Amino acid sequence: MVSATSFRQRLLALEPLVGSFLKTPTSHATEILGAIGFDFLVIDQEHGPFDRTSTDVALLAARAAGIPALVRVPGPDALLSVLDCGAIGVLVPHVASVAYARQVAAACRYRNGKRGFATSTRAGGYTAVPMWKHIADSDAAVTVIAQIEDPEALDQLDGIAAVDGIDSLFIGRGDLTAAFDDQSAEPPAVRHAVERIAVASRRAGKPISVYVGNAGEAAWLKGLGASAFVLSSDQGFLRQAAIKGLSEVRDTVKRTG
């Protein structure tokens, strides 16, 4: 299994990493995607129907599959529970201010932070890990990614990127597109925002994380400096494969019928 610490080290070293979102609250999608070579998975509590129990099951499945799993939380109140359940990190939506970035970073760290302590959790080995070892290991391993997706965040990019404990900025193109309300194919305001976020990340020496739907988007964003790519999701792959399979079989049975 790839350790949590090594995942954070790989991210900070700007190693190219490809992961995917998990939207379906079962262990099966986690096992399937975990077995085919992705570098990490992101359990999506924000837009998927995950509660604490189903998140716990998905994180256990990720451990069984030997793949690092982060959780995109719906808000700061979920940070402690997903870390206790063994998430190797968090993706936090709507980080639009320096103050909120500091709050998020503090909630995920013991030393110089405000993370609630417990070793009675999966993260603490159910009391098997000594207190100070758990504190040191967790602070070294937990990955904190701030999602930048609000226009008001663009004026605070340098400050957000500079916050100690924020490991990476994730460019939220979907929310930015909705916020700028431009229905053209490639809204100039969104592209400019993406470029500004990328510049701020590079200036702070922080990895750039992005969502991509295909190789073309990955190539464009890699050119801006992105190194961590979240490709589609379990639901996206299911839909794509179903459309392809249905089309192929229908064409075959029509020809041979």
Mean pLDDT: 96
Structural class: alpha/beta
Number of helices: 11
**CATH homologous superfamily identity:** Phosphoenolpyruvate-binding domains
By CATH, the architecture is named: Alpha-Beta Barrel
End-to-end distance: 49 Å
Number of strands: 8
Profile the largest sheet: 8 strands, parallel, barrel
Rounded to the nearest angstrom, the radius of gyration is 19 Å
CATH topology: TIM Barrel
The CATH class is Alpha Beta
Strand order of the largest sheet: 1-2-3-4-5-6-7-8
What can be said about this structure in brief?
The chain has helices at residues 4-12, 27-34, 52-65, 79-84, 98-107, 131-141, 157-162, 173-180, 188-204, 215-223, 234-256; strands spanning 17-22, 40-44, 69-72, 89-92, 143-148, 168-171, 208-212, 226-233. With 257 residues, it is an alpha/beta fold.
Structure description:
The protein is an alpha/beta fold. The chain has one domain (4-256): Phosphoenolpyruvate-binding domains (TIM Barrel, Alpha-Beta Barrel). Helices cover 47% and strands 16% of the residues. It has eleven helices and eight strands. The chain has helices spanning 4-12, 27-34, 52-65, 79-84, 98-107, 131-141, 157-162, 173-180, 188-204, 215-223, 234-256; strands spanning 17-22, 40-44, 69-72, 89-92, 143-148, 168-171, 208-212, 226-233. Strands 1-2-3-4-5-6-7-8 form an eight-stranded parallel beta barrel, surrounded by seven helices. Strand 1, helix 2 (27-34) and strand 2 form a beta-alpha-beta unit. Helix 8 packs across helix 9 (188-204). It starts with a helix and ends with a helix. The mean pLDDT is 96.
